[in-house]
Amino acid sequence: MQINPDRFLSDLHRLRGFGASGVGKGVVRPAFSDPDIAARDWLAERMAEAGLTVHHDPVGNQFGLAPGPSLLVGSHSDSQPEGGWLDGALGVICGLELARASAEAGGPAISVANFQDEEGRFGVTTGSTIWSGALSLDQADTLTDRDGATFAEARGAMAHLAGGFVDPAQFTGFIEVHIEQGPWLFEAGEAAGIVTDIVGIRDMRITFTGEQNHAGTTPMHRRRDTFQGLAAFAALLNERFQNVVTPQTVWTTGHVDLHPGAHSIVPGRCTFSMQWRDGNGDRLARMEAIIRDTAQEVADARGLGLEYGTLLGLEPVDMAAPLREALAGAAEQVCPGRWRRMQSGALHDAANVAKLMPAAMLFVPSINGISHDFAEDTDEADLIIGMQVLAQAVADLR
Amino acid sequence: MQINPDRFLSDLHRLRGFGASGVGKGVVRPAFSDPDIAARDWLAERMAEAGLTVHHDPVGNQFGLAPGPSLLVGSHSDSQPEGGWLDGALGVICGLELARASAEAGGPAISVANFQDEEGRFGVTTGSTIWSGALSLDQADTLTDRDGATFAEARGAMAHLAGGFVDPAQFTGFIEVHIEQGPWLFEAGEAAGIVTDIVGIRDMRITFTGEQNHAGTTPMHRRRDTFQGLAAFAALLNERFQNVVTPQTVWTTGHVDLHPGAHSIVPGRCTFSMQWRDGNGDRLARMEAIIRDTAQEVADARGLGLEYGTLLGLEPVDMAAPLREALAGAAEQVCPGRWRRMQSGALHDAANVAKLMPAAMLFVPSINGISHDFAEDTDEADLIIGMQVLAQAVADLR
After folding, report:
1. Which of A4, A16, B121, B259 could be cross-linked to B31 through a Cys-Cys bond (beta carbons 3.0 to 4.6 Å apart)?
2. Taking CA A301 as the corner, what is the angle to CA A297 and CA A304, rounded to the nearest 5 degrees?
3. Residue environment code for A239-249, b if the CB has 16+ CB neighbours within 10 A, otherwise e
4. Does B222 sit within 8 Å of A183, measured CB to CB?
5. Which ranges of chain A have pLDDT less than 70?
């Protein structure tokens, strides 16, 4: 099968016209926003032109369906509040171009998926999570965004398009093309990454409670200072993780709130975020045990109270071997020696779809590892290589 | 001279009626608020009844002036947004009762001071700072509170009362009675603290700048994580201070701001407050050098940028020996063995007034060391002892 690079790149650039940020190639296209819905309407036309039957489900997931059994290929066209032009949009256009090229070549049958709210305006990969059955529609409808709008209200904006949920049984598998979002491929000068697995995530809030006091009159030995507790916790945790983690393991505290937050008051309460990711479920559990033991030890030593928020847990997901190896074989044909097998440190729709059918992912390089930023970009030669690897893999699967 | 404990306590309780919080004995009486001005109007009547000439200066400082040379005694009646009933109000009523008792005893001449905005709605000990000459009226007028109101606007609420600034040359000295705000006297079961000096304060914001990144796809070795920088800085600082500090030295980080403050984003910027206090100017300077060296070392080791905000510097202030020793001698007469010499870890109006005349301070115990809280309190027996120590010291000064 022959892909059409010009048609592929042209559609990719036309798509970034919806919600264009005016800064570089960036886009502002959050789920269910006017630009997001306009982009999906335009994509629906492209899918129809490709001979696909357009279908929207009740939560805004968009499909271009081929008749009979087919391979599903796609990603998501919604973006972060300050998003890049590729991210999930690349995977959707890859699916569209593959469907066109495959139809021109007489098969195989390709359907296209464009999931809704992957970027988590409401939940986390909301649309594909609901489709996979991991989140009920009733639960989802109560989710709110930062401005207090509910998912129920938001999906109302696409209600006029909505049919039922698509039966996953018609799909033989799912392939998602996405930018890496990390630095590995770019720094190695490689063109393709074959995802072995999508890492699991653990995320929770931790709160130390101490005693709010005057920063001038309270002697150090008498303080129950929650900031000092946080600093001690973070330092101990880094030491104790060393014997457990791999070079791919990551852990992050991205939010800290000290109360009352004044220069002259010893903070009586400190709430902070603790998130860790790894491809191995046992390692995630060992890290959780270390986190809880260390926090308790710090609290006991300093006379602090300790509270935990809800633990968000997403399990690691292995990619399906047949699809994964077809992508690997195709990469070796298209860009020999310039590809690698790698983990996905970011969550993707494929992690949800894997609950319904065999799923695999293909990464292209992110320049300087930048994503979720207007500056996000990938060399167009690498975009074309990614498209060719996808097409070759699908051809080889026959 | 004989003080009148009932009259003293009665006025103290009447004063807490202005801006009563309804929670315990707490008050809400910020500088220039309606309750603050009403309290000052009521105090003006008490001063006049005591035979003093009431005078307000352009910045809301209130005086009850005795004719000729006099000893100035007082503090401030404004409170924190959530303040205790004593704090500075105690010192003002002590001055009032002393003026009455002294007049009844035929002298010595006592004037009363009630400074404005000691609690720093606008600056830091604003009223007495301006009177001391350390801050010009023009500079002060541009200061704003949390809601953006300017000092110029606020002092307009007392403009109808305002005369000129009072000539400090008429005062032979200044004595301020205040609650300790710390735990030392209460824990030792002592009744009086004779302040040897008011500690100096250094305060600045420190900002680490790194690289904002995806918390899933950015490997640890490639991160420039400003939270990790803060944690490393805090841990190193505690170690390095050990050889420099005394049991009275304190240092505090009460505010931390991570940007953008999301669970899934490596924080690219961290701004935090660093405040340290000590009675010795050289030690404050040594601590500053350690702070700057340690921050630079952490920044260099982690590839972070480093910026400092304005350094607020208040020098330590020694209390005047003659007044201080008169208070010490009186304490030994009134509560033998139940008093101590001690530092003030908190800033007070006396630190400013000391630039104009000999100044001294007397502390009474704070139950559980609590202050700037509705729960702030002191045993009334200890309040009376404090009043008696003040009166005895003034009598002995003749």
Report:
1. B121
2. 90
3. eebeeebeebb
4. yes
5. none
Q: Is B203 helix (H, G, I), strand (E, B) or coil?
A: strand
Integer CA distances (angstroms), A373 to A78, A366, B137, in order: 14, 12, 47
- DSSP codes of every residue in A265-307: EE-SEEEEEEEEEES-HHHHHHHHHHHHHHHHHHHHHHT-EEE
* CA dist., res. A91 & res. B305, Å (int): 37
Specify the residue for token string 């220039």: B32
* CA nearest to B179 within chain A: A217
Here the tokens at position B273 are 């407050």
Residue pair B214/A181 in contact (Cβ under 8 Å)? The answer is yes
Cα–Cα distance for residue pair B182/B363, rounded to 1 Å: 10
What pLDDT was estimated at residue B262?
87
- What are the beta bridge partners of residue B72? B111, B174
- The CA-based angle B337-B343-B347, given to 5 degrees, is 135
How far, in whole angstroms, is CA B273 from its chain's centroid?
A: 19
> Can you read off the two tokens belonging to residue A318?
């292995």
Do the beta carbons of residue A127 and residue A116 sit within 8 Å?
yes
Residue type, A131: W
| Beta carbons of B343 and B248 less than 8 angstroms apart | yes
Cβ of A264 within 8 Å of Cβ of B250? The answer is no
Question: What's the gap in Å between the CA of B248 and the closest CA on chain A?
Answer: 6
Q: Which residue of B has its CA nearest to A206?
A: B263
Q: What is the DSSP string of B151-193?
A: HHHHHGGGGGGB-----GGGEEEEEEEEE--SSHHHHHT-SEE
Across B351-377, average pLDDT: 95
pTM of structure: 0.88
pLDDT of residue B166: 98
How confident is the model over B197-246, as pLDDT tens digits?
999 999 999 999 999 889 999 999 999 999 999 999 999 999 999 999 99
How large is the angle between the packed helices A226-241 and B226-241, nearest 10 degrees? 110
State the smallest CA–CA distance between residue B229 and chain A in angstroms. Answer: 10
Q: For the segment B32-89, what is each residue's pLDDT rounded down to a tens digit?
A: 999 999 999 999 999 999 999 999 999 999 999 999 999 999 999 999 988 999 999 9
> Which of B204, B211, B252 to probe by mutation at the A interface, max A CB count within 10 Å?
B252
Which positions in chain B touch A234 (Cβ < 8 Å)? 227-228, 231
Paired sense of beta strands B269-278 and B250-252, if any: antiparallel
Give the minimum alpha-carbon distance from B261 to chain A in angstroms, rounded to a whole number: 4
Size of interface A-B (CB pairs under 8 A): 175
Closest CA to B138 of B154, B156, B151, B123: B151
pLDDT tens digits, B174-203: 999 999 999 999 999 999 999 999 999 999
Q: What is the pLDDT of residue B60?
A: 98
Rounded to whole angstroms, the Cα distance separating A193 from A350 reads 15
